[in-house]
Amino acid sequence: MRLVDFAEQMALERSTAHRLLKALTTEGMLVQHPRTRRYSLGPLLFELGISATHQFNLKDICQPVCNMLADQTGDTSFLFLRSGYDAVCLSRTQGNYPIQTPSVPVGSRQPLGVSAGGLALLSALPETEIQQVVKAVEHRLGAYGALDTDKLMDLCLATRQAGYASTGNHAVPGVRAIGLPIFNQAKQPIAAITVAATQSRMTERRIVAILPMLHTAVKEVTRLLHQ
After folding, report:
1. What is the Cα Rg of the chain in Å?
2. Quick one: CATH architecture of 3-50?
């Protein structure tokens, strides 16, 4: 596309359009052909597309692992995907224990940090990004009991110290869940697997028993994603 056509279609001044195109070209999202001076899509868009493909088949890749985790623990396993400032529930697999937890609906989204999956994702981010996310979701936290920004930052610190995320009564009243993040090849947290049970069942002793299973599940998903 020519600069003049881009400016016209975007309803921009030509100088503004030129600055935008130059910046995108510098980042590799566009290329400008020397002979025609026209712009076309650049190599970085291809790389971004490749890195994003896991999001479209992540549920299929992870479902056998989630099934295994639910069978091993008897409790409900969940798969969450990061979407901006939210964690989206992609999968919910119930175990065989007679009392299952009130479910987080598949497809529902909550601010990062509210669920165990969201907290695992949030805590795995760099410190500056954690602060950015917490500030962005602050106005939504009032819907989740006594959760506020100070409490959320404390939960992130506790998660980093413990090596796993643990939440109770925030996403679903009466439920406690633990979770671990899943990283892509660029070492970015993209998803999380959790196990949830009633608070009376999810004791500290039980958490110690479940954690090795959760770690094994995350390792298997990571292996499958990186194949």
Report:
1. 21
2. Orthogonal Bundle (1.10)
Beta strands in the chain (DSSP E): 30-32, 39-41, 76-83, 86-93, 109-111, 165-168, 175-183, 189-198
Q: In whole angstroms, what is the distance from residue 227 CA to residue 223 CA?
A: 6
In the chain, which residues fall in CATH 1.10.10.10?
Answer: 3-50
Q: What is the pLDDT of residues 26-82, one digit of tens each?
A: 988 899 988 899 999 887 776 666 556 555 578 888 999 999 999 999 999 999 998
Kindly report the pTM of this predicted structure: 0.75
Decide: 179 and 207 in contact? Cβ < 8 Å.
no
Helix axes 43-52, 54-73, angle to 10 degrees: 20
Residue at 221: amino acid letter = V
Please count the other Cβ atoms lying within 10 Å of the Cβ belonging to residue 30: 21
Give the fold, CATH level 3, of 53-225.
Beta-Lactamase (3.30.450)
pLDDT tens-digit series, residues 84-111? 899 989 899 999 988 877 667 888 889 9
Count of residues in the chain: 227
Tokens of 201: 């069942």
- What is the Cα–Cα distance from 11 to 213, expressed in whole angstroms? 55
